[in-house]
Design goal:
This protein is of the alpha/beta class. About 20% of the residues lie in helices and about 30% in strands. It contains three helices and 15 strands.
Length: about 200
């Protein structure tokens, strides 16, 4: 009843009940249009492969309260209703990617100390709290970006510090002159935008 040779796949609440009490899994995948409560998986401590949450439609909270170690990645992506991701005992993970969860407000992993690969949190537009106070080591890229002009501008000004690729999106980058600003504003705006383009080309 607790298979270790295949991924635990969750689509309905009955799947959660079937795996309740399992301590070890080779992987966990949650993809569903239903509302599922993962709390019965409280005994799950170790996942040797990946945990993939999403896409989901009705799930508002993911809480894996017993999880300590994930050998692969934790991928939480495309969950339209998800508001909270809670991993209170998690200590290590292979990588973390939390992306495109538009209602997500809270990510809490207070004991997470090490991620051997990348740690990426992007495009979670309502995110207000990312709590990982024990995180001391990330072996790959660390990217936390949403409309990430501040990050990219810092690297723009200090290109010698940029050691990874950051892809981000926004509505517009640069300055636009307003008609009522007159010729002087138009000149200054064009001059500044040209200087920024030249700076990028020089690096």
């Amino acid at each position: 009843r607790c298979p270790t040779d295949r991924i635990l796949t969750i689509a309905v609440q009955a799947d959660v009940a079937a795996f309740a009490g399992c301590r070890v899994a080779s992987g966990l995948r949650v993809q569903t249009g239903a509302t599922v409560d993962l709390a019965p998986l409280r005994d799950l401590e170790t996942v040797s492969g990946d945990i993939v949450i999403g896409p989901t439609i009705g799930t508002e909270e993911v809480a894996l309260n017993g999880l300590v170690s994930v050998g692969g990645g934790i991928v939480v992506r495309g969950n339209n209703a998800l508001r909270g991701l809670f991993l209170p005992r998690l200590e290590t993970a292979g990588r973390v990617a939390v992306d495109d969860n538009y209602e997500l407000t809270t990510i809490a992993a207070p004991r997470l100390a090490a991620v051997t690969g990348a740690f990426s949190v992007t495009a979670n537009h309502d995110l207000a709290l990312l709590a990982a106070p024990a995180l001391a080591r990330v072996g790959g890229e660390l990217v936390i970006a949403d409309e990430a002009w501040d990050i990219d501008h810092f690297w723009h000004e200090h290109p010698e510090l940029k050691h990874t690729t950051l892809a981000w999106y926004t509505d517009f980058v640069g300055f636009l002159q307003l008609p009522e600003g007159g010729e002087r504003e138009a000149f200054l705006t064009d001059d500044y935008n040209s200087a920024m383009i030249e700076h990028i080309e020089s690096h």
